[in-house]
Design goal:
The protein is an alpha+beta fold. The chain is built from 27 helices and 21 strands. The structure holds arginine.
């Protein structure tokens, strides 16, 4: 008996120890989380050192990088580290076949050589965070659910104005716990950002799509930028006379390394999670939405790849789009697979069942589960509409180009309406028409500028034709005919005895030979001499317009209704859970604002009998090396340096050079580029990915499998210093040996 008892307590202890660290905590609400647990795991800093509005703190070192990633200050001169895949677009845009920094890498030898991105970038610093829950909820009292979103926008606007009055700061507000709490973020936005350095992409993206979202990993996924400001250290738009920004705080870098079980924390800007999703939502993801996205993206990727491997210039033009479409193509494949493997539906259903028992005799909650079921059942037949609008109909470039015609269409429509108006005075009419005509001229000008952003070369058009054809077939196969717009019904009516491929191929040929939107030259010529009848008669424009109107009138209202109802139900569910488990620490879903996650360096077992170590080294880079391969090639210089074992102070005590490591931190997309820090707040790595076995992570944090993949800071510095020969950049940093 005693032994059993001892075993039992041991098992309990194991569960405690083995529990991975779920939670994306707001730095300003450290009081509402388990700070003691952070200390127990190895944090040696105070709350004030993490977040302070009066003194510089770690929150000042972690910045929102270009509205989608995270970065961190690593010098007093505004130097920022982030991921290679976060700088990818800027790097690719600066690359040409003559000056191919995407393939060759780039290290600025001095300030003057730093590169100004073609598309301006933005770095956002959090000035402070205000809890505005009481004010918002007071103003929302009595507001009907359908008016809530609109009212919220008004409330935010007013509070944000008040919070930033008399300063150059901006503000943004966030709904937390689906509307049980609200926070306002005061921000400082910098827009003069310059590229300082990047490894060649066969280091920065080593392993390509094959290794993406997977461990063991060997990617040097980092790039470097510098934030510039006016002489007053305040944000200023690009000017050669701007100076390096002096951040309130920059991170010190530790070369001391870590071992299994050591404390690790991350401060970054996670984009979106849905951890309080209902079981019905999980089923919708695994059965309907995720597989559709994968199949649709497959068409785009195959058509692009075919052209990219044939021609370097095309590869450079399409690289960035390819990488981002491929990233979430694999993501959704993994999400569906792991939601099933990790039994997330069953887990959610069990949680809901327990909630149902608790709620059975509580008036406020007792019908909740039934209501959820109703809302999802009603919505299910339309669940693919939004996805298909975005990933199918809106995916071919020709459709995006056609969408440039929408503003003109609206103006011409207005013009026609005025022309037909019999009650308006002649003078009034003339004035209104003149106004509209000048608007049309202006719109044509702006559209020409927008057109400039598109790459639509012969090779890209050839790929686009395949994509267009593929999308028509997918739409035909997977969307019920009762949901088609008239135009599509007409095209499909020509199909006989299953010859849909032929019918769509003929139609595609017609569109690409006749449409204005099938070539940039034709669009430009049209904009110089625009005509309403030509626009309306255009086959690409009319197809897209029909689909868009079909969506807006018949399906968007259903999508909106579903969103608003499921949000309201989710709000109630979370409120109920908080009452049901009064001692549990709750954290809000990720929503693109600054968060902290803490945990430990940690290995894992991906499946029975297989162990994954928590660290990889450059030995593994060489093991994966395939000369000439699209994903696993390496620069000769790296191979040579490896042979000479010239790792200097960046080697571990066993002489090996570390490359990547694992921790059980809770991150998601948007955390890319985040600083991974030790218990003293020193930088040990840059987070860049999640692992395959926990791809279900946006909906459920898996206690066994969820890991963060980071590039070791020693590999980063070795690449800058020894590989790139840019020791002057390392010299700028604060390094602890
Ligand atoms: N999976 C990474 C993330 O979302 C991005 C990796 C980008 N690399 C690529 N091969 N597409 O954070």
């Amino acid at each position: 008996m005693k032994r059993i008892y001892a075993l039992f307590t041991f098992a309990l202890l194991m569960i405690q120890v083995a529990k991975a660290d779920e939670g994306m905590w707001l730095l300003s609400m450290l009081d509402k989380m388990n700070f003691k647990d952070m200390e127990a795991k190895g944090l040696r800093l105070t709350k004030e050192q993490l977040y302070s509005i009066n003194n510089s703190s770690l929150k000042d070192a972690s910045i929102w990088f270009n509205n989608g990633c995270t970065g961190e200050f690593v010098s007093s001169e505004g130097l920022v580290l982030t991921n290679h895949h976060c700088g990818y677009d800027a790097i690719a845009e600066l690359s040409t076949t003559q000056d191919n920094i995407l393939d060759n890498g780039f290290w600025a030898k001095d300030r003057a050589s730093e590169r100004v991105p073609k598309t301006p970038m933005v770095v956002t610093r959090v000035v402070r965070v205000d809890d505005i829950t009481d004010q918002v909820l007071a103003k929302l009292a009595g507001v009907a659910e359908k008016d809530r979103a609109r009212k919220l926008t008004e409330i935010y606007k007013e509070l944000e104005k008040k919070a930033t009055e008399g300063s150059h700061f901006t503000a943004t507000s966030r709904e937390m716990f689906k509307g049980n709490a609200y926070y306002l973020f005061v921000l400082e936005k910098f827009t003069d950002i310059r590229l300082v350095g990047t490894p060649p992409q066969n280091i920065g993206k080593f392993g390509g799509e094959t290794d993406n979202w997977m461990w063991p990993r060997h990617t040097g996924d980092f790039s470097m930028f510098r934030v510039y400001s006016g002489a007053d250290n305040k944000p200023a738009k690009y000017s050669p006379s701007n100076v390096a920004y002096k951040p309130l705080k920059h991170l010190s870098i530790s070369l001391k390394g870590y071992k299994e079980g050591d404390f690790a924390m991350i401060i970054g800007f996670p984009g979106r999670t849905n951890r309080y999703e209902f079981s019905q939502g999980v089923a919708m993801a695994t059965d309907i939405v995720d597989p559709s996205i994968v199949n649709l993206r497959d068409i785009r990727l195959k058509a692009w790849k075919e052209q990219m491997i044939q021609d370097e210039a095309t590869r450079l033009l399409l690289s960035s789009d390819y990488a981002s479409v491929a990233n979430y193509w694999k993501f959704f494949d993994g999400e569906a697979e792991q939601l099933k493997r990790n039994k997330v539906f069953e887990k959610k259903a069990a949680e809901e069942k327990a909630f149902g028992q608790w709620a059975a005799n509580r008036e406020e909650y007792k019908s909740l589960l039934y209501d959820i079921d109703q809302v999802y059942t009603l919505y299910k037949p339309y669940a693919l509409q939004a996805t298909y609008m975005r990933e199918c109909i809106g995916a071919p470039t020709i459709m995006q180009l056609a969408s440039l015609g929408f503003s003109l269409d609206a103006l011409y429509f207005e013009r026609d309406t005025i022309m037909k108006n019999k009650t308006m005075s002649k003078a009034d009419k003339a004035k209104r028409l003149a106004d509209i005509d000048s608007n049309i001229a202006k719109t044509c000008q702006l559209t020409l500028v927008a057109l400039d952003e598109f790459n639509y070369t012969d090779r890209i058009i050839a790929a686009d034709k395949k994509i267009f054809l593929g999308m028509l077939s997918m739409y035909y196969k997977n969307i019920p005919s009762s949901q088609w717009p008239e135009v599509f019904k007409k095209i499909a009516s020509k199909i006989k005895n299953g010859n849909s491929e032929m019918v769509f191929a003929k139609y595609t040929d017609m569109v690409f030979s006749k449409s204005i939107f099938a070539s940039k030259e034709k669009i430009a010529a049209f904009l110089k001499k625009p005509s309403y009848s030509k626009l309306l008669a255009d086959p690409a424009f009319s197809l897209y317009k029909a689909h868009r109107e079909n969506y807006l009138t018949n399906f968007k209202p259903k999508v909106d209704e579903f969103m608003s109802q499921s949000l309201a139900l989710g709000r109630k569910y979370i409120k109920g859970l908080m009452e049901m488990y009064p001692n549990r620490y709750f954290y809000p879903d990720a929503n693109s604002c600054q968060r902290l996650t803490y945990g430990t360096i940690r290995s894992y077992n991906p499946k029975d009998g297989v162990h994954y170590d928590y660290i990889t080294t450059i030995d593994g880079v060489m093991e994966k090396y395939i000369p000439g391969d699209y994903e696993f090639d390496l620069p000769m210089r790296l191979v040579d340096l490896y042979k000479s074992k010239d790792f200097g102070r960046y080697a571990m005590s066993n002489g090996k050079l570390p490359v990547a490591f694992l921790s059980d931190n809770d991150i998601t997309g948007g955390n890319s580029g985040s600083p991974v820090m030790d218990g003293d707040g020193n930088l040990i790595g840059i987070a860049f990915d999640g692992n395959w076995e926990a791809m279900s992570g946006n909906i459920d944090f898996d206690q066994t499998y969820k890991r963060t993949i980071s590039v070791d800071i020693r590999y980063v510095l070795w690449l800058i210093d020894k590989f790139g020969g840019a020791s002057h950049i390392v010299a700028e940093m604060t390094i602890i040996e």
